[in-house]
Design goal:
This protein has an eight-stranded parallel beta sheet, with helices on both faces. The chain is globular. It contains nine helices and ten strands. A hairpin with a 2-residue loop joins strand 3 and strand 4. The chain has one domain: Histone deacetylase domain (Arginase, Chain A, 3-Layer(aba) Sandwich), CATH 3.40.800.
Length: 278
């Protein structure tokens, strides 16, 4: 699987000592070859977001919520991140981009996320490539509340999330289920065994939905060494999850979400790339 990114991610949207920093992409781009993307258009974004959110990002200097920074280059970075997700769909690749997206709801940014890149890429594939059914699987340690909120009433998109619960953002509990929404909340401390057991339910749901395209919100913050969460996945678990995901649809692409240990992140992304390519 090819990596998709852009050299500008290492300087756009500066966040200082924030966990979601330019260094995340700097350490990845040092070791992983990538194809450069182009930005998404505002029209691409508006398939998922309210115009008021775009204007809010365009004009805000400071904080979009209590943990999401907005600078003079945040709009440029967020459009580029969505463009990377679109290019990953086009190529069957892995978008290595920032800011992440899966907490961004239709009308608000939150949780380090500005625009919901994976939802934007799903709707782009439907509008521009004629794709019918899309499945989104989110294994970031946090529930992808934004993606769920954007697609939950769309019968053509299945959303599945495996995540630590109860935990930020507080959604995605055992009772949060719909015909095309499946949440698999997992207790803190879960590791490979528990994730692979839950994966059987993911696999059944995706297979039953029979998507033409599978998109993975590929967060690495469930790793045992991640500083922001309490899960215990091994590095090899990401290879195996990616390998299993790659079998679930004729087309597969991935988008980087969380993962905040700069020392381990490159090896984790390489592990996932290996699995997707297997």
């Amino acid at each position: 699987m090819e990596a998709v990114s852009h050299s500008a991610f290492v300087y756009l949207h500066p966040t200082g000592g924030h966990p979601e920093s330019q260094q995340r992409l700097a350490v990845l781009q040092q070791v992983i070859p990538f194809v450069e993307c182009t930005p998404a258009t505002v029209d691409d974004v508006l398939r998922c977001h309210d115009p008021m959110l775009v204007e809010h990002v365009r004009t805000t200097r400071g904080w979009l919520d209590h943990d999401t920074i907005c600078t003079e280059s945040t709009l440029e970075a967020a459009l580029l991140a969505s463009g990377a997700a679109i290019e990953a769909v086009r190529r069957g690749g892995f978008a290595l981009a920032r800011p992440p997206g899966h907490h961004a709801e239709r009308d608000r940014a939150m949780g380090f996320c500005v625009f919901d890149s994976i939802a934007i890429a799903a709707r782009w594939a439907q509008a521009e490539q004629g794709v019918g059914r899309v499945a989104i699987v989110d294994w970031d340690v946090h529930h992808g509340n934004g993606t769920e909120e954007i697609v939950r009433d769309d019968p053509s998109i299945l959303f599945v999330s495996m995540h630590q619960w109860p935990f930020y953002p507080g959604t995605g509990g055992p009772d949060d289920q719909e015909e095309t929404v499946l949440n698999l909340p997992l207790a803190a401390g879960c590791g490979d065994h528990e994730y692979f057991a839950a994966w059987r339910t993911v696999e059944q749901a995706v297979t039953r939905f029979d998507p033409e395209l599978l998109l993975v919100s590929c967060g690495f913050d469930a790793h045992i060494d991640d500083p922001l969460a309490g899960m215990r996945l091994s590095t090899g678990a990401f290879t195996e999850l990616a390998r299993r995901a790659a079998k679930l649809a004729p087309r597969v692409a991935a988008v980087l979400e969380g993962g905040y240990n700069l020392r381990t992140l490159p090896a984790l992304v390489e592990a996932a790339l290996e699995g997707f390519a297997a």
